[in-house]
């Protein structure tokens, strides 16, 4: 699972049938709108979770020694490191899930 | 985007409702995986990223992260089994 997916990169295509008047296409429009809205809200929830966690971690890592000149750029580097960690963790977890599902554990 | 009114929702036929439920279930399980990744990254970053150096991960740090995820899951499985044994 790539990091881009948490920002809603894979959200369903948004098709609003404004010109169509039939009830079946209206239903299809509502369905699409529901899916898009749910996808967007999940993406927002994921993004804010990420911002909270990165802030918490990088605050601890970088501001433990306040006013030192060494912390310049620390938060930026910490953020980059956190994102890379996110990708490594994601790959390891997905690999574990796949391994467990092929071996019949779950 | 205009919001969906409750009236719109009650107009949905059974098949559409079923489709939405299936969609919700799949999004829900994807979201559970995402939240686990957030949780693991939070825990394992604290364990493994000892000092913020240049924004890159060393190979030791990567190995540490992978081991951290796997040991966390091992612990989880063992605890579930232990609790099942208590019943």
UniProtKB/TrEMBL annotation, chain A:
It is a peripheral membrane protein. Keywords: Chaperone, Disulfide bond, Membrane, Metal-binding, Mitochondrion, Mitochondrion inner membrane, Protein transport, Translocation, Transport, Zinc. Gene3D superfamilies: Mitochondrial import inner membrane translocase subunit tim13 like domains. It is found in: Mitochondrion inner membrane. GO terms for molecular function: metal ion binding; protein transporter activity. GO terms for biological process: protein insertion into mitochondrial inner membrane; protein transport. Its main location: mitochondrion. The keyword Ligase does not apply. Heterohexamer. Belongs to the small Tim family. This is Mitochondrial import inner membrane translocase subunit. It comes from Lachancea lanzarotensis.
TrEMBL record, chain B:
Keywords: Chaperone, Disulfide bond, Membrane, Mitochondrion, Mitochondrion inner membrane, Protein transport, Translocation, Transport. It is a peripheral membrane protein. Coiled coil: none annotated. One of its GO terms (biological process) is protein transport. It is found in: Mitochondrion inner membrane. It comes from the Eukaryota. One of its GO terms (cellular component) is mitochondrial intermembrane space chaperone complex. One of its GO terms (molecular function) is protein transporter activity. Residues 23-84 form the Tim10-like domain. It holds the Pfam family zf-Tim10_DDP. Heterohexamer. Belongs to the small Tim family. Mitochondrial intermembrane chaperone that participates in the import and insertion of some multi-pass transmembrane proteins into the mitochondrial inner membrane. Also required for the transfer of beta-barrel precursors from the TOM complex to the sorting and assembly machinery (SAM complex) of the outer membrane. Acts as a chaperone-like protein that protects the hydrophobic precursors from aggregation and guide them through the mitochondrial intermembrane space. The twin CX3C motif contains 4 conserved Cys residues that form 2 disulfide bonds in the mitochondrial intermembrane space. This is Mitochondrial import inner membrane translocase subunit.
